[in-house]
Design brief:
- The structure holds two protein chains of two kinds.
- Chain A contains nine helices and 24 strands.
- By secondary structure, chain A is α+β, with helices and mostly antiparallel strands.
- In chain A, strands 15-16-19-23-22-21-20 form a seven-stranded antiparallel beta sheet.
- The longest helix of chain A is centred in the middle third of the chain and has 18 residues.
- Chain B is of the alpha+beta class.
- In chain B, the strands form two sheets. Chain B has a six-stranded antiparallel beta sheet, with no helix packed on it.
- In chain B, helix 3 crosses helix 4 and helix 5 packs across helix 6.
- The longest helix of chain B is centred in the middle third of the chain and has 31 residues.
- Chain B is elongated.
- The chains are: A alpha+beta, B alpha+beta.
- The interface between A and B is large, with 76 and 58 residues.
- Strand 20 of chain A pairs parallel with strand 12 of chain B, so a sheet runs across the interface.
């Protein structure tokens, strides 16, 4: 995969260091939103005036003719814009969307300093504004504590009301009374790789900004589709429109890969229309949490549905072990095969790029499993078993007591396919979403005295029945074949 | 006809530990003893709080002792009572002259029955027991370090043994010091025998039972092992106390049980409370040992998966507990300015 970094290796916890899954998880501009929170917290009450940016090109007067009124003229202007040199096109494009893009700001209660901020754009004539779910998630989940406001480029501002959201695709719809800026045109067709594209938003509270880049088509090997945009994106641009060369919205800014160079992601516009259709009325805030849970369950159901009944396996030192179990999964291998080491360890880690941001500090919905194959010809069986014990527990889990309850565990020596194994299953329930569980599976093979398989599974945000069904298939998929 | 015993009194000067420093035995009615700092006294005491001639003790016809204060400034105390230039009769008791305690015994003093002598195995075989305890404790340390180390085995063994030695030195020294203060002897080998044998028994016992649990699958064995280990620990503490102090059996037992249970129990409770709130803590079950040691049959996969429904109940309970301890923000109508 083109986005995957090449230096995937194991850290002490046995997880990929720089695997795409981790980076993508981090990438969600949530982090960017959070950074903007930190920024807001750090800045003084009255920020000092920023030094004017030095323009890279001389200012060019914008001709009124590039802001046409009728559709034909707009199409003609689009063609003209597409043909313009890069910098001119960006400037003109920004002028055309300036009135339609707003900054969305969240405040704690009656506070005056924003707690978080992002961007949004008008998507319908009656004033429905599209943004990211992660921009407004705190206001959705804690409606009594936060208030949302828009700030238009002309300085107008007002309170926003949540109308709908789509957790899986990280979208939300908000609306303000007596505020209906010009709606942007939406195209559901995904731009081809290499097409010129733009992203508009309010990065880091620095004012309305446009960046220019290239659309690189859909990201491969993921379940929920995202468009790869090779251009700059920064915190605060979340929810802003991603524009094609013709000025139509092909997606919504959503995230950036911090470890990459201008590797950004855009939610395809095809998910906007269904959300707008069900967001005509204001959201009943009392049902928001149930809706979040339902959408997360739907998200993980689509992932489990993509996994075939019989899991695809790979064979290592006589063990068949689940590997790339569905197209959305990606696997890598690594380990230390140094013959001087007392124990040689080879690893196979697989994950699905399906993590979903739920709220501050809570990402969920992903699957990750890791096999570690331990072999020795130097250690006594008693020494080796001790080594196995120490490694079996070295699989890190994150989680905050704000979001999850403690784990409850069940352990037993279970007869698997051709070998016995100590199987530990630990589950914990989400505090806010009772139907969702985090599940940890740890398998330690008990077959040979000088080799062992340690297998860890991490399921986040799954339903109990789906989890137990997957665990059974996973354990059935493990087999001693030699 | 039994001959009538002539009256006798025994005066014992006690030190601060209650041990007899010197004694004086007088017999015959009318015999008396003057106590004070003056060298003309029958019993001379080196006590700055005593008068030159402080008290006179006179043996009477009936075998009792007449205690007479000779006009001292501090008086003569018998229990709570203070004599100032006065007299009192006693059969048995303690008389405080200045700061010197004198025990007075007569034929009227009750005699406790003869105690049966029990051979104190620990005291008798202290050298052998200390050597044996040290040997199998160190052997466990060596074994354990060897088992845990995959590399630099010798270095790890050396460090492990050094640490155990350091702990033993501190522990045994402390008890020996207490023993020296209260008994005047160090009893190093006794204390070394107590702690090394208890520690070795616990260490080897827990390890062997751990293997047994893995082999048989009888996880319930963990309870008796824990209780036995705790019992050994308390027993060792009891023996230390008995050897180092003058505490009675009952008091030593009470202290040996209550102090570690209260301190250990409090520490365990605090630790457990912290662990209960750790949402990332997982239990991985019994430690594994070489598969060849296992003799028990394994659980069927179907049976295991079915049993996971228990987990659902338990996770629900933990969630309710978590919500009770830290309630979530309630949902209400959106905030309006």
């Amino acid at each position: 995969m083109s986005l995957k970094t090449s230096s995937q290796s194991l850290n002490d916890e046995g997880e990929p260091h720089s695997g795409f899954v981790r980076n993508l998880g981090r990438a969600i501009i949530v982090a960017a939103t959070l950074s903007s929170i930190a920024y807001a917290a750090d800045k003084p009450a009255t920020p000092p005036p920023a030094a004017p940016p030095v323009p890279l090109v001389p200012p060019i007067a914008v001709s009124p003719s590039v802001v046409p009124d009728d559709a034909d003229a707009a199409a003609a202007a689009d063609e003209e814009l597409a043909a313009q040199p890069v910098s001119n096109a960006a400037r003109t494009r920004l002028e055309r969307v300036r009135d339609s893009v707003v900054q969305i700001r969240g405040f704690v209660g009656d506070g005056q300093s924003d707690a978080f901020h992002g961007s949004g754009f008008a998507a319908t004539a009656d004033g429905l504004i599209v943004t990211n779910y992660h921009v407004v998630s705190e206001a959705i989940l804690y409606p009594q504590q936060y208030r949302l406001e828009y700030l238009a480029s002309d300085g107008r501002s007002g309170q926003l009301v949540i109308h709908g959201f789509d957790v899986e695709h990280d979208l939300a719809v908000v609306k303000a009374e007596n505020f209906a800026p010009r709606a942007l045109r939406i195209r559901t067709q995904i731009p081809s790789k290499g097409d010129r594209a733009y992203s508009v938003g309010f990065p880091l509270n620095l004012g309305l900004t446009i960046t220019e880049g290239v659309s690189n088509g859909l990201v491969e090997k993921t379940l929920e589709q995202k468009i790869h945009y090779s251009g700059a994106m920064n915190g605060g641009m979340s929810g802003g429109p991603a524009l094609d060369a013709g000025g139509a919205v092909y997606g919504v800014n959503v995230s950036v890969l911090y470890s990459g160079q201008s590797v950004s992601f855009v939610v395809p516009a095809k998910h906007i229309e269904p959300l707008l259709a069900r967001s005509k009325a204001p959201l009943d805030s009392s049902s928001a949490r149930e809706q979040v849970a339902a959408q997360l369950l739907q998200h993980q159901a689509s992932l489990f549905d993509s996994i075939p009944a019989k899991l695809e396996t790979q064979t290592f030192i006589g063990y068949a072990l689940p590997a790339k179990i569905a197209p959305a999964f990606e696997c890598n291998s690594g380990g230390s095969m140094d013959p001087n080491m007392p124990v040689r360890i080879s690893t196979i880690g697989c994950w699905a790029n399906v993590g979903v941001y739920v709220q501050k500090g809570l990402d969920t919905g992903d699957i990750y499993f890791l096999h570690r194959i331990l072999q020795t010809d130097r250690l006594h069986p008693l020494q080796f078993s001790d080594f196995v014990n120490k490694n079996a527990s070295a699989f890190a889990w994150g989680g905050s007591q704000d979001h999850v309850a403690p784990f409850a565990c069940k352990n037993d020596i279970v007869a698997l396919n051709g070998f016995d194994a100590r199987v530990s299953i630990c589950m914990r329930q989400y505090r806010m979403y009772a139907s969702l569980y985090d599940v940890a599976v740890t398998v330690v093979s008990l077959k040979n005295s000088q080799d062992a398989v340690l297998s860890n599974v991490r399921l986040r945000g799954v339903a109990f029945d789906a989890a137990t069904k997957f665990i059974r298939r996973y354990l059935e998929g493990m087999q001693w074949k030699q | 006809m039994e001959a009538v015993k002539p009256p006798v009194m025994m005066l014992e000067v006690l030190d601060t530990h209650g041990r007899c420093q010197t004694h004086l035995r007088l017999s015959g009615a009318g015999s008396h003893c003057k106590v004070g700092r003056d060298l003309s006294c029958d019993l001379v005491i080196d006590d700055a709080y005593a008068a030159p001639e402080h008290t006179q003790l006179t043996l009477q016809e009936d075998g009792r002792v007449l205690v007479t204060d000779l006009g001292s400034r501090n008086g003569t105390r018998i229990g709570e009572r203070k004599l100032d230039n006065a007299s009192v009769t006693l059969e048995d008791g303690r008389v405080l002259i200045g700061r010197t305690l004198i025990r007075v015994r007569t034929l009227h003093s009750p005699l406790s029955p003869e105690k049966i002598f029990r051979r104190d195995m620990l005291q008798r075989h202290r050298t052998l027991l200390a050597f044996a305890g040290l040997t199998w404790l160190i052997s466990f340390v060596v074994f354990n370090e060897w088992r845990e180390a995959t590399e630099e085995v010798e270095r790890n063994i050396f460090l492990g043994v050094a640490v155990v030695f350091a702990i033993l030195v501190v522990w045994v020294s402390l008890w020996a010091l207490v023993t020296r203060v209260s008994h005047g002897a160090w009893s190093l080998r006794v204390h070394l025998a107590v702690i090394t044998n208890a520690a070795a028994l616990i260490a080897w016992g827990v390890w062997f039972f751990g293997v047994a649990v893995f082999a048989t699958g009888w996880t319930w064995l963990e309870w008796p092992i824990s209780v036995a280990a705790l019992g050994l620990l308390l027993g060792a503490l009891y023996l230390h106390l008995r050897k180092a102090t003058h505490l009675s059996q009952r008091l030593a037992a009470i202290i040996a049980i209550t102090v570690p249970l209260v301190l250990g129990g409090t520490a365990a409770w605090v630790g457990w409370q912290g662990e209960q709130r750790n949402v990332n803590r997982q239990e991985f079950g019994i430690p594994v040992y070489p598969p060849a040691l296992r003799v028990a049959s394994s659980t069927d996969l179907d049976e295991f998966v079915v049993s996971l429904t228990e987990l659902k109940r338990e996770t629900g309970r933990l969630r309710q507990q978590s919500l009770a301890e830290k309630p979530m923000a309630t949902v209400g109508p959106p905030f309006k300015r």
